[in-house]
Every structure is written in C-alpha cells, then in structure tokens.
C-alpha cells in the first residue's frame, strides 16, 4: 500500500488521520489509537521494506527510544511490523512546533530563554548518554518546543549510536560521517564512531544559532564548510552578527563547548548546560546595549543556512 493511501486506513490498530511530514526513509502521520490516544506514527517507506540496513536503523531508533525515558524525550509507545508488513513506530504526540521554525519566526532569542531551552535538551541528551547512547543528529529540526508551556521534547534517535556496540554491529561505513553538516562536530567528519562530546558540540551550535541567528562557520558551500570545520576556529559569538553583544561569560561557555578538540570541551553535556545557565542568569552590568545583550537581534536570512539547510541530513 502506497504511503499516500494510508490516510483514512488502520495500520496495526492505529487509525491514520493525516500526514505530518516525511524524510528520506519514512513518513510521519498523526494517528489515533484506542489505548494510546493521539500519536505520531512513523512508517518506513515501502521501497525500503526489504533494505536490511534501513530496517535495522528504523528498529534501532525504536529500541533506543524505548531505552531512554525522560520528560524531555518523546515516549516510544509501540513499534513493529503490521499485518501488511509495514514497519511502524508509534511515539508520543508532542505539542508545539519544531524549534527551528519557532526560532525562524522569532529571530535571535534572549540568552536566558536559550539557556532554559538548552537546559531541557541537555537533560534529555544526558539521560541518553547515561545509558550509552549518543544522539549524533542534534539540531533545531529535531526538537519540539511549546511556547505556551516552554516545554521541550527531543525527537528522532534514527542515527543514534550505542557506544558499546562492536564494530561489526555499526550501520555506518568507515569514512562516512552521519549527522547534519551545519551542526556536526569536527571529529565526526572522519567517519569514526563519536562520543558524548560530539553531542555537546552540536548543542553548543544550537545555542549559538538560537542566540545570534547565525552559525559558527560561514562557508558558502558544503565543501567550504567542510574545510572550515577541519581547519579553522569557529567565529566568536560576539562577532557572529553586527549589533549583537553578549556577556563575556556566555561567549566563553559557548566557545569552550565548540572547541575542536573534544577533551577541551566540558566533561559532560550536564556540565555545559549548568555553565550556560549560570552565565545567562548572571547579573548584567547597567552599561552597554541592553537590547543587544538580551539577544533581541533579527535573524540573518540567506547565506549558508538558507542555501544548504536540509542538504546534509542523515548519512
């Protein structure tokens, strides 16, 4: 049965109400279930039903999601294969909107707001790290944010990795990196299995972007960006955008977490989050541009973000 014809049908007990979105390997629907209520139902594309690696990735996402229970991670409710052999994953329906879209509409966010958002994401990621899971694809598009409740929900463990996995159990070939180029840590570009410090780098990039509307590297093409990630330091937060000035303490935290050498970052994402919250909530001197310090700048359009966003998804 084609994806387009699933709306209005029942799959493994889930009544499919409407299409929510789609990616390279699966499509997400809003669905109803007698016990679970409204859920997000992810269905593997039909053409991948017999692709061993695609199926393993899909089931791994479900298994990783089931291993980590945290209030800031969407709950995995059910997964398996339906009577018509479609692989599915039912997860908690999270209210709000994709963080990327929220930031795009609201421009550069105040530092305190960013610290509060990152605190929740970091708490979720730390919970994953505590059970040996590295997310590897942290970016605003993988976070749901509800402005009314200010609650964050982390999505998509589709390319997460088990740090204890043996080499023959890994689904990424040596020499091929996974993740999203604009948010990936430099050490991931070698294609080697990365550790928790790589997630911290991605989280710092998210914070940098939410605060400034810019990214820490300015390459205008994927090739140029790749080269910069390997050979150049990131642009200092206070040089990201004209008119935006951040307290030195905030800049220092972000730039430490963006260190090229993993050992130079914070010892954990929890430590990074604590340092960012402390810096963002510290008293600000009365002098200077309060509007700029608060992060009330507009978001840059175009440039790298507009040109290559979405081109470098999963590896």
General description of the model:
The chain has 315 residues and is an alpha+beta fold. The chain folds into two domains: 90 residues, 2-Layer Sandwich (Phosphorylase Kinase, domain 1), CATH 3.30.200.20; 212 residues, Transferase(Phosphotransferase), domain 1, CATH 1.10.510. 33% of the residues lie in helices and 17% in strands. It is built from nine helices and eleven strands. It has a six-stranded antiparallel β-sheet, covered by helices on one side. It has a three-stranded antiparallel β-sheet with strand order 7-9-10. It has a two-stranded antiparallel ribbon with strand order 8-11. Strand 9 and strand 10 form a beta hairpin. The radius of gyration is 20 Å and the shape is globular. The C terminus is likely disordered.
